[in-house]
Amino acid sequence: DLAIVYFHGWGGDSNSTSGLAFAQAAILRGFAVILLQGTGPSNYRSWNGFGSTQSPGPEGEICASTSPEFCDKYASCSGKCTKCTWTTCIDSVEMTLAAIDKIRNAIPQLQNDVMWASGCSNGGMFNFELAQDTRSAPIFVGFAPIVGLPHAGFNRGTNHFHHFIGVWGARDTTCPPFSDTGDRTFDTTYKGWYYSSAQNTTNKWRHDGCYPSNIPAPTLNSQLFGCFDADPCPHGGPALRSCIFDTGHVCDDSRQHAAILNFISDLHTFHRGHSASLASKNKKKHMSLIFSFLSALLFLALLALLVRIWQQRRRRIALDSGNSSHIELRSSAHQPTDLNTENAQGLDPAVLVEY
Q: Across the beta sheet with 2-7, what order do the strands follow?
């Protein structure tokens, strides 16, 4: 019923430790897991999007002058490099969709599975690209990035009404979720890149998911750990949960995996129960309509029978009334006559009797 596509972090591959740990936890919970692999040379495999190759963006450069350069590692970026480019320049969305189609064709059981996306670091950041790209957005029902955020200026929310759970580490310095200077956070591990804060990112996601209602995302605090749910949308829109753990830039913490899998499982159970309830209500409604229809037919049939009986009774009464008048007329014609009088008039009494 449920499948999760997992995207590894920058420099990893489909056999990364964090990905395998996530897959093991998910499989034990009954999920199907697809581990995809990014493009690039060994130790530099990555995913393109969320501003990683598009600097400068709407808010200027996505990196500081002190950031290291990685563009020359990628042949796909030849002739397109900027100082801030740090991932492959290949269309990772197109590659992902082609891989999913190939896997679904090879494994028919996955054809009708509900599809989620998750990923670590660069793979988590790529979740935001998949959510807003019109080619990939309809494929997924929800996203669960781990220690991943879009670059500053590329917080574009979701193209569909997607469920969302974001998991971040309060001590993360590579993709820091918190900022003291507004909506931008700064990577101090590489000195480095600018990201949209977790608060800014979830606020945008919630705005898109609940539009036109303005329902805020949970308020996040670097000193307050746990998972926090946004208030539900008035029209029953997508769910949103933010989780902060006392960790750094890691993706193999069992609490992270449990938070994501619990969120997805709970949503799936709720919607399955809700669908079953709706199906039961619809069945009762249909049965009620059928009963009403049959009752109406029975009523009309009974009414027609009563009308027929009434019409037959009227005809019988009319017939009986006509016969009675004829008999009275004939009786009147045979009333005894004064034969003496008739004889006096010279009439034949026998003729009168026969008539």
A: 32-36, 2-7, 114-120, 142-146, 163-169, 240-245, 226-229
List, for residues 71-115, the tens digit of each pLDDT value.
Answer: 999 999 999 999 999 999 999 999 999 999 999 999 998 988 899
Residue identified by tokens 């998910």 is 26
Query: CA 273, CA 322: separation in Å to the nearest integer?
Result: 73
H or E element at residue 293: helix 254-333
Q: Let me know: does 262 contact 275? Beta carbons within 8 Å.
A: no
Q: How many CB atoms lie within 10 A of CB 104?
A: 17
3-class DSSP state of 213: coil
CA-nearest of 11, 83, 1 to 42 is: 11
Query: Whole-prediction pTM value?
Result: 0.77
**132 contact partners, CB below 8 Å, separation of at least 6:** 156, 157, 158, 159
> 67-97: string of b/e by CB count within 10 Å (b at 16+)?
beebbebbeebeeeebbbbbbbbbbbbebbb
DSSP 304-329: HHHHHHHHHHHHHHHHHHHHHHHHHH
CA distance 104 to 106: 5
Q: Distance (Å, rounded) from C-alpha 319 to C-alpha 220? A: 94
pLDDT of 106-145, one tens digit each? Answer: 999 898 889 999 999 999 999 999 999 999 999 999 999 9
Q: What is the DSSP string of 34-67?
A: EEE--BSSTT--B---TTTT--SBTTB-SB-TT-
Cβ atoms within 10 Å of 30's Cβ, excluding its own: 11
